[in-house]
Amino acid sequence: MALTAEKSTVETRTSDAVPAGRRSRAGAEAARYGVLRRLGAALKHDMVVNLQAIAMMAEVLNAKLERGTPAPAELQTSITKLNRLAREAVANCLKVASWIEPGEDEGVRLADGVDECLALLASNFNFRGFVVTKEVPDSAFQVSRVVLRNLLIASLITLTDAAAGPCEVHVKAEVVAGFAEISVRISPRQDEFEGLPYEASYRQLEWSDVQALALAESVELVRSHDQIVIRMPRAIATAPLQIAPI
User: Fold this and answer.
1) What pLDDT score was predicted for residue 106?
2) pLDDT value of position 239
3) What is the model's pLDDT at position 246?
4) pTM to 2 decimals?
């Protein structure tokens, strides 16, 4: 018993010795890792889809060669298509890689950033019976792409993880007093739809994950039982290539 008590005291003192800032950063990093793990299947799909097209095109070209040497014009057309598909695959892989290891933070139009997040979760939500609607103005207002991705994706996954069943998910974004306000609200579906059994590939995300990310990025959050509201400032260009010459 004495040994157990002593061990508990040591552990408590060690925890107390960790600075609050370090614990906060650790919480944010754990949340980012959780978001990436939950996005793993979607990111993998987006990365290989163009590569599959290249493989199919190569098989078609190989079949033509086995039947005999195709006409030069036909061969040139096939090579051109392969080249185009290869370039698209490289561009797509770089896009996927930016979710895993973002480069210098850049601004993105609010509507485009929301679309990127919803597109990545579309297949998963469809499978689980979540119907997504959005209300986003076509505005030139820009926000940080990295911050929007982390917080919007985390909010969407957190609310749908906590849902008792298939829901309607409404995403609304607007510019208010120089800030972007993005709300994510869920409500039960009104039809008789029954979702397929679903088990997350990694742990469920929780409100504490969203809070940790918001704290790390100095973003305001408001939450009710069925809604999360994110308030983000306008993105300010810092990289030389993002600053337009006067």
Assistant:
1) 86
2) 54
3) 36
4) 0.79
Which CATH number describes the domain made up of 107-233?
Answer: 3.30.565.10
pLDDT in tens, 105-130: 789 999 999 999 999 999 999 989 99
Q: Which of 90, 87, 235, 71 is nearest to 148 (CA)?
A: 235
Q: What is the dihedral of CA 206, 208, 213, 214, to 10 degrees?
A: 120
Partners of 180 in the beta sheet?
Answer: 175, 232
Domain ranges for the chain, please list them. 33-100, 107-233
Listed as ranges, residues in the chain with pLDDT below 50 are 1-15, 17, 241-246
- Distance from C-alpha of 174 to C-alpha of 170, rounded to nearest angstrom: 13
